[in-house]
């Protein structure tokens, strides 16, 4: 094996290890934001609006193990029904706390249940949104609606597109509160909160919305490449805090929390792998965004407190906000962004390589729309990437071919230099300069592949469009590992492969990882096997190490790597032929077998 190939493989392995190690040891840091001036109010004498610390935990049953059915029966409800979601709103607190996403199932099985996004307090993984008013001057806490308020349905029956509902509550102290809730054809709720003051005195109070999540979600993956937890947009700065890090925030008034004042063009909420909820206040109004962790009840809570309203006698005030509760579909988020939700597309975790991840997803998404099959779209994307990198690859392969032509001269230099390493290096540099050969050119295509590989991995793992995306036959979810193995005769027997992450899954790998190993092996055999035993061992094991290492990765990523290897093999073979060198693949395979036999005189 010549020094060029030795350096090539060394650079490949080292680069892969360095980048993977960097992401593991130094995950992306959350964006730091500086607090802006305190929330402005319309009354200089009004006290600062304070959302009750236990707003998310009020009216929770003593036992938090109640079933969802029992929790739904604790108060009257209003049905929610559109083409894409179903559920209900509780009149207790006016909570949006029961929501199913009709277009998504928990697994690819035909009888799999529909994804449930929101659940009422008292059920497992309780998760809900509620709204209220924080009292200021002229009104007491028991005179504003809160989490325990029982509202009345004054208008509408079932919440659906173009059919809003209105809730009302009279505090019997001169103020009447109403809340009109509407929904679009996708996942956006609009909440109009109104107060009408018939008392003799004016009142000051601030409308707020909050999202409460009881405990860390049971389906949270806690994987370094994926962000789950708090997601906030603060005047163009994205703030992300993982579930595990929220309890470690600075303690304020005995509660771990982070508060950002005076936010315009902002939103705040919780995100999971594919679904999220977000409070979206009026982008033109300075809003206070807060995240809290309530240790006693183990509740994660986000808040959006809008500017204080001063309502004179005989007057009314209305504040409108939005609530997103649904799937992180790229086209839907982009449409909401176009409608004024600032940088909403960034709620998808694009990662550090966002400058690659976003365009790669854009191309992949449109190829899928054109072709109608995500697996074929991944292969098409691979062809496009290889076409873009072909000029660089061509120079690399030509350089490698020239390096092979220089092999006899390099061997002579080694013989003449003996143990003098400096003399050898000087002689090789002069040879490269004289023959106009760049020894590092062979590494460039592989180094270019590394960020592309990670970006595509991010796209396949994070984006909703790859979730449950079918390819063909047994490969019905390109976001999941290969479901085939010898354990189920590669999909012929009616049971699944060993569960991902287990020892059996590592041993009984599927068809795609096997094809990956074979493609790497054949690509390797374009050149004769090295004579050095150590180098020979590295080359012999590398395809199969990668085969097992990538066997547990998403099927879509393995499809990309197989296609990439196949195209690379074809390109390199044709370029080597154009340079007058005919690769003897079968002979190289036989030669490597002979070299592997100890004591073989040949």
UniProtKB/TrEMBL annotation:
Residues 374-577 form the Membrane insertase YidC/Oxa/ALB C-terminal domain. It is found in: Cell inner membrane; Cell membrane. Residues 77-363 form the Membrane insertase YidC N-terminal domain. Keywords: Cell membrane, Chaperone, Membrane, Protein transport, Transmembrane, Transmembrane helix, Transport. It is a multi-pass membrane protein. It comes from the Bacteria. It holds the Pfam family 60KD_IMP. The chain crosses the membrane at residues 7-26, 369-394, 437-457, 500-522, 543-563. Belongs to the OXA1/ALB3/YidC family. Type 1 subfamily. Required for the insertion and/or proper folding and/or complex formation of integral membrane proteins into the membrane. Involved in integration of membrane proteins that insert both dependently and independently of the Sec translocase complex, as well as at least some lipoproteins. Aids folding of multispanning membrane proteins. Interacts with the Sec translocase complex via SecD. Specifically interacts with transmembrane segments of nascent integral membrane proteins during membrane integration. This is Membrane protein insertase YidC. The gene is yidC.
